[in-house]
Amino acid sequence: MRELPVLLLLIAVTAGPATAAESLLVENAYKNISLSGYTRSIIHQTISSEVSGKVLQVNYDIGQVIGEKPIIQIDPTFVTFEIETTRHAIRRLNIALKKSASREDFLKKEFDRFDALYKGKSTAQSRRDAALEEYSQATLESETISVEKSAQETRLMELMERKRRHTISAPNGWIVTGKHVEVGEIIAPDTPLAVVGDYRQLVVPLSVSANELIALQQLPEEFTATLDKEPVRAAINWINPEFDEQTRKLAIEVIIRNFHGEGRGGRFFSLALQVLTEGLRIPKTAVINRYDNPRVRIKATDEEISVLVLGESNDHVIVADSPRLKPGLELAGRP
């Protein structure tokens, strides 16, 4: 029974010097905050028409996911008529080109025959020159038809592209969030028809102070936050360097890397941060508080400095900034 007090005495002697050896340092003050915001789609677009016409089909309603079908179909009747007319014109030019080529071959043979007779002094030069002129005119006519055919083919491509734009599509997997037109309406170019967004990835716009941004940038590239109180992985998507002089904050966007549940706007995002704040953090054991006059003593010089206590947390107090107190300065304990 006499061994127990000896054991307790050994423990007390061992623990004492370790506590005394702890340094009492001035530190920067931090506060715990929570950055919060609400989700939205990573991208959204307003769908507009480049052509005029009557709306034949609206294949999706608000909230529906876009699949293979186009979102809106505009009546292409008149441009289809123009396409058929142009194709007929090209066919006529092909026929004319064949006729011109046949005539050109015939006149070339005629010219060669008269040229041989002229060289044999069996015909007059005027007859040879007339054959040459007819052949030259036939060649020019073939070239004219070829140019006209090329122009009609270019017009056909233009009309085909115009017809393609009567079918208005949006990316697969996006969701319709706004619909501004119904079947049967006549629309003009640049008319907004619908709004779509990609909710497969969610982002959260935030407005942060300079200290909050510094704390964010000190986090890993991917950090843990909460979405509707469930843990998620997130990262900074972009930082807008433009400073808002009214709020004195910067706009940033956080992208959520993985999430469970609905892909939609309005889900609550929260991120806990420790942010540098005004004042200094000092251990309570370094504060001499006699007669309501709190002071600290610098260990190296034994000089006492008055401090203004702003608050406290656990075993530390927060004091106002002082030019004589710097982070890292070692203080003496209370006598």
Short overview:
The protein is α+β, with helices and mostly antiparallel strands and 335 residues long.
Tell me about this structure.
The structure is a single chain. The chain has 335 residues and is α+β, with helices and mostly antiparallel strands. Among the domains are: 20-34 and 273-335, conserved putative lor/sdh protein from methanococcus maripaludis s2 fold; 48-75 and 168-197, Beta Barrel (OB fold (Dihydrolipoamide Acetyltransferase, E2P)); 77-164, Helix Hairpins, CATH 1.10.287. The protein is built from four helices and 19 strands. The protein has helices at residues 3-20, 77-119, 125-164, 210-217; strands at residues 24-25, 27-38, 40-48, 53-58, 72-74, 167-168, 175-179, 186-187, 192-208, 223-227, 230-244, 249-258, 268-283, 287-290, 293-298, 304-306, 309-313, 316-319, 330-332. Strands 2, 3, 7, 9, 10, 11, 12, 13, 17 and 18 form a ten-stranded antiparallel β-sheet that branches. The longest helix has 43 residues, at 77-119. Mean pLDDT is 87; it is low at 1-21.
